[in-house]
Amino acid sequence: MDKICIRGGVPLEGVIPIGGAKNAALPLMAASLLTAETLTLRNVPALADIASMANLLVQHGVELTRGAEGEDGEHILELSAGHITSSTAPYDLVRKMRASVLVLGPLVARCGRARVSLPGGCAIGPRPIDLHVKGLQRLGAEVELRGGYIEARAPRGLRGAEIAFPAVSVGATENLLMAATLAEGETLLINAAREPEITDLAECLTAMGARIDGIGSDRLRIVGVPLLHGVAHSIIPDRIETGTYIMAAAATGGEVTLTNTRLNLVATVARTLEGAGVEVSETADGLVVRRRAERLEGVDVMTEPYPGFPTDLQAQVMALMTIANGASMITETIFENRFMHVPELARMGANINVHGASALVRGVPQLTGAPVMATDLRASVSLVVAGLAAAGQTVINRVYHLDRGYERLEAKLARCKARIERLQDGA
Ligand code: EPZ
User: For ligand 1, is residue 60 a contact (CB within 6 Å)?
Assistant: First the structure.
C-alpha cells in the first residue's frame, strides 16, 4: 500500500486549485438514473469514490463517457440511463462506498423497484439508513430488509407525502428529494439537511424539469412530474477540500491562494479560524489564507449540520489546534466515533484528552514527525496537515483513504513548496 512521506516545517506558499465537490458529484451522478436523457456533469473531481459510483451506475446499465476535457482540464462526465438493465446494487460494490445507497431513491422512482445492499458501517460509526427507508415507505414504497439487502417496490409508482426527519441526514434528504421528483403529487421534506451539496443537487434537478421550492432551506416542497430531461450542470467547488487547504496553510504559517472556490461555502469555518488568528480573505484571484500572528490561538469547535462547522473538517481543525497557543475544546456531534486521528496525532507529540464526544486539545509549540496510520478519509488528511507543520519526517500509511477524497494532493502541496512525496508500496 502506498505511503506519503512529508518533511515538515516549510511554510506553504503558492496557489492551490480546488476541485468539484465529491459530496455533490456522488448524488448528482445517481440523479442520472431519474431520466432516459443524458446528464452532463462538469467540474467532476477525479477521485476513487467517483470511480466507484461510476462502476455502480454502469452495472445498472448507465452509459457513461468522459466528455472532452474542459478548457482548464476540468473533468466532464456524460451519463445516460436510457435503459436501466439492473435495479440491484450488489454488496461487493456498495461495501466499497456507502454513498452507493444514493441509487435507492432514483431506482424506485424510475423503475418501481430496487434491491440495494445495506452499506454497513464504517470506521466513523454504524451509519444506519433507517431514515432513508422510512422516508421511502412514507412515499408508498414497500420496503423489506432481507439477506443484507434493502428490497423496495412501488409497482404503481410513488405518491407524494409529508416526511418530517427526526434527525438531519444529508443522504436521506438527497435520496428522498430525488425520489419525490417523480412521485405522484406533492412531497414536503421537513427538517431537511441544508448542505450546499443538497442545494446543488436541487438546482440540477430543477434544471432537469423537477418542481422544487424551498431550495437552501430545511423545508423542501416537491411537486412530482411524469419525467425529467437531460441537462448540463457544473458541480460546486469542494468546501471540505477548501477548508482542508485553509488549515494546511494556517498550520505551516504560509500564505496560499485557493482558486475555483468561494468564501461563502466555508463561512463558518473562516469565522472560526479568524478567532484562531487565521485570515481568510476573498480576492479576484480566489481565497487568500495567511496566519495573522506568529502563533495561532486555541478556539473551541462544535460540529453541526450546515451551516454549522462541518464534521468533515473536525479532524483537520484538531490537527491545527494541536500547535495553537492555549486550549481548544472540540466536540463531535454528528458521528459516534470520529476521533481516530487522536492517537495518531498523539504519536506526533500532540496533547489531546478525549472525554466522550469532546476532545480537549492543549497546544504544544511544535509537533514531531512520526510514522502514523490513516483510518478514514478525513483522519488521513488531518495527519497530512500535522505532518506539514511538524519538525522532521512523517510517513502516513494506508493513503488509499486519501485518494477517495483528495485529487492530486501531493502535487498540489508540492507546488506550494511542501516537501511531500508518495512512496509506492514496498519503497
Ligand atoms: C454525508 O454522509 C457525507 N457523505 C459525509 O461525508 C458527511 O460527514 C455527512 O453527510 C454529514 O455531513 C456524502 O455526502 C457522500 P448523514 P451521510 O446521513 O449522508 C445518522 C466524507 O468524509 N443517520 O447526514 O451518510 C448518521 O449515523 C463523508 O466526505 C441515521 O441515524 O450522513 C449520522 O450520525 C464522511 N439514520 C448522522 O445521522 C439515517 O438513516 C448524519 O448522517 C441516516 C443517518
Answer: no
DSSP letters spanning 125-153: B----HHHHHHHHHTT-EEEEETTEEEEE
Question: Is 122 considered catalytic here?
Answer: yes
- In our burial notation (b when 16+ CB lie closer than 10 A, e otherwise), range 78-104 reads bbbbeebeebbbebebbebbbbbbbbb
Q: Convert the pLDDT of each residue in 211-230 to its tens digit.
A: 999 999 999 999 999 999 99
Write out the E strands in 303-383: 327-331, 351-355, 358-362, 371-373
The H or E element containing residue 343 is helix 341-347
Amino acid type, 229 = H
Q: Are 213 and 34 in contact (CB under 8 A)?
A: no
Q: Grid coordinates standing for 182?
A: 417523480
Cα–Cα distance measured from residue 357 to residue 250, given in angstroms and rounded to the nearest whole number: 25
**pLDDT number for residue 285:** 85
User: Cell triple for residue 424?
Assistant: 509506492
Give me ligand 1 centre to Cα 128, in Å: 9
User: Using the 8-state DSSP alphabet, how is residue 20 labeled?
Assistant: B
Site to probe by mutation for ligand 1, drawn from 47, 175, 200, 334 as the one with most ligand atoms within 8 Å of Cβ, is 334
Q: pTM score > 0.85 for this model?
A: yes
Edge-to-edge order in the sheet of strand 301-302? 301-302, 327-331, 358-362, 351-355
Report whether residue 378 contacts ligand 1, using a CB cutoff of 6 Å.
yes
Give the closest residue (by CA) to ligand 1 atom 42. 169
Give residue 68's pLDDT: 66
State if residue 334 touches ligand 1 by the CB under 6 angstroms criterion. yes
Give the burial class of 319: count Cβ atoms within 10 A of its Cβ; 0-12 exposed, 13-18 middle, 19 or more buried: buried
170 CB near ligand 1 (under 6 Å): yes
With a 6 Å cutoff on the Cβ, whether 21 touches ligand 1 is no
